[in-house]
Amino acid sequence: MRPHVEVIHEDDYIWHAAELPEGEGRAVERRLSVDEEDGSSSLRVDFRTAWGRGPGVHHADTEYYVLDGSMTYGGRRLGPGGYVHAPKGVPVEAVAFSEGSRILHYREYGDAGFDRGARRWADAREDVTVIDSGTMAWDAVPKPGPMPGLFIKYLHVDPLTGFYTRLVHAQEGWADHRLEHHPCYEEAYTLEGHMEYNFGTLDAGTYFFRPARVKHGHFTSMEGGATWLLRSDGELFNWHTRNEWVRWGGDALNYGPQGRWSQSSHDLGGGERPEKELAMLRRSLEHARQQGDYVPHGLGPDPSLPAIAKALDAALLQGGHTHPAADWGADPAALEHPGERTDAAAHNRGAGRAWQPGDPIPAPIISSLPVRSRSRGRWDGDGM
């Protein structure tokens, strides 16, 4: 499993010698996130000299995306925006990078192993994909949220698992006032631009890896918009939450005013979002209202308060003298797939599962403070 990494800037990572076996040259890598169980990795790689490797077979589904410099694959030169997807077990041609090149490098479902000159594995699927994304047109996202302004370029989609890699652009002024969660993990590296959301600031060089079902949102795309390379290990269904609230509390024993205390996310106000961002979120609300889909975010009574009051009244009427159990609605366990608690990923609460329309929609995960950058990130009342 990979930890929840949210809004870390690549400059906050240290450099390691790049793990690129069977190659000639010198390269270093920043390990954005790593799965220590199966070797999956998301890496930022710099080539300090010219580097090359002959034909062979990767042990993992492997992706390269050129940020700066050039990559030559099978004699074809690719500059910034060049992309190669090499499925594990599928023979690849010789690859080379010019000195000073900067790339994103991903390995999925396997480690860095590479067998020079090997033949195609018997169970290998698909073929190598080679794309110059700079020649591709941006397509409007069919469901861009409560307002238009999202665009996409599909780089690779696995026809069997739904795993897909794409470039996404949010134009300046695009906003979404809702929180959302997904059945799959989601990770992104910010290529350019500026966006604010509940976990912090997305600008060039920032990265996140978010496990399945973790709530996130309140997006505001700022000056110049924002562009990412974004990956998911399955089809990205969006499940939205509005007017959200969280309540926590307990009995203070040896701190503060002793006694029972309770606090809700409604009590935290607007957090630290500046007026410009709040105005953008209000425009998102107004657009939703015009479309006939309007619920004011964060307004009205906290639903937890009537639940507590009703439980207390019931206990008093029955002569109870202990703290009653409030009815908070559906038990999150009832919204999971039964196999989630018994399958191979049962140890990982944030693991994604294949989901199809009509399946039970799992409850979201309210994230604790994730691994986070020293130079980026924000944690306030929106941190869900």
TrEMBL record:
Annotated spans, Disordered: 349-384
Q: Cross-referenced Gene3D superfamilies, in alphabetical order?
A: Jelly Rolls
Q: Which Pfam families match?
A: DUF4437
Q: Which domain of life is it from?
A: Bacteria
Name the InterPro entries on file: DUF4437, RmlC-like_jellyroll, RmlC_Cupin_sf
- Protein name stated in the entry: DUF4437 domain-containing protein
Q: Where does this protein come from, organism-wise?
A: Nonomuraea typhae
